[in-house]
Amino acid sequence: MHRSFLYAALSFLPLTALSTSALADDAAVLSGIDARYDETASVARQLWEWAEVGYQEERSSKLLQDKLSASGFSIRKGVAGIPTAFIAEYGKGGPVIAILAEFDALPGINQGDVATRAPIDGKAAGHACGHNLFGAGSMTAAIAVKNWLEETGTPGRVRLYGTPAEEGGSGKVYMVRAGLFNDVDIALHWHADDENSAAARTSLANRSAKFRFHGVSAHAAGAPERARSALDGVESFNLMVNMMREHVPQETRIHYVITEGGNAPNVVPDFAEVFYYVRHPDAKGVEDIWARVEDAARGAALGTGTEVDWEIIHGNNPLLVNETLAKMMDEKLREVGGVQYTAAEKKFVEQIRKTFDNPRSTIESAGEVQPYDRSLGYGSTDVGDVSYATPTVGVRTATWAPGTSAHSWQAVSASGMSIGFKGAQVAAKALTLAAIELYESPELRETARAEFEAARGENYKYYSLLGDRDPPLDYRK
Predict the structure, then answer these.
(1) In a 3-state reduction of DSSP, which class is residue 281?
(2) DSSP 246-265
(3) Which of 297, 309, 254 is nearest to 277 (CA)?
(4) What 3-state DSSP class applies to 275?
(5) For a Cys-Cys bond, which of 90, 126, 144, 201 suits 432, CB 3.0-4.6 Å?
(6) Which domains does the chain have, with CATH numbers?
(7) pTM of this structure
């Protein structure tokens, strides 16, 4: 019997020998994950300490590989032309269930594991999106699934994908482009959050580029007529794009940072650079807006007497929702439950929540699972490209104090301590139970595949928003 149907029936049917056995089996699996808590926490903490940015995650990647290798996984290193990308696999025959693992940090933000603002001197990055937890929790899930396959003799392979540079580097896109997901039956992923949810949330497609303006230097006071300011080009470009915001679909998101604008006010800069992101719910929308952004760059260069070129850095498709899988994951998350705080953890949460403006949720929500629904999320992820290669489902767990925003110092803080580690354990449990369900139910896999094929449409052909460029291994240097 399909165990999802079994659990639904338990509320009004007497327990059978099969249902008792299934629940006992799940309890044993979850107990095994609990027994690995110290290892999960240790790995998550070490990744948090290192806080390595995209494509520079040498130590983080090696630590995960070493742990998985020691647990009996075979390792393929440096896949898709990315030194820190890897695939760890165990098993033979049967379906291939993939578990995604991220481990890159965000530049320009760091914080100690305390509830007040406390940057760490000399540290240039931090895990403000919880990818240290993502990597550690996925590792634990993969090992738990491997142990279950081994103990039960079930045919099947569990495959952990070590995916670098999610933050603006599109590591998974290169792995999809290289065909590394072609034989995967189902892909599972998760993410750090301030609540527990397996709702079917899609994401925005996005593309980024570094626009580089080239001008002519001269003394800003003594010979300004000889100069052509590259910074003028950047500022004119930004002005035009900001005016364009009034005339794009409301779901669009455009953001930028000036990464180089000169060094001295009395030297007209001959080089300036601005880094842009453009997002929209579908890839075609991104491309339409992107064409207008490129025109604005050309116009800014023409108007300021400069030259401009640009380099596409990354591009992600939106998440392709699979509700067959999402509803199954919701059941697993509800079986696991949320995060329960100790008195010390509750005190930490209460203190850090004082730094929020009107937090949207209560402290108790960390122990709850949010209602299932289908919605549009305004973030972007390279998991989107995976979701067009194979049926994909994710889950979010309360790794941060309720009310925390991603990419904040509060997220860095919780990601380095027990609140984050407990959320990673919840994710590991939900992923493991979902994987077991998928191995045991060919009907579920078939239904998910049928929904996936219908959602992609007939004659679907994969298209990458970053084109045919090589991985930008130096984009964070």
Answers:
(1) coil
(2) GGS-TT-EEEEEEEE--S-T
(3) 254
(4) strand
(5) 144
(6) 3-201+318-456 (3.40.630.10), 205-316 (3.30.70.360)
(7) 0.92
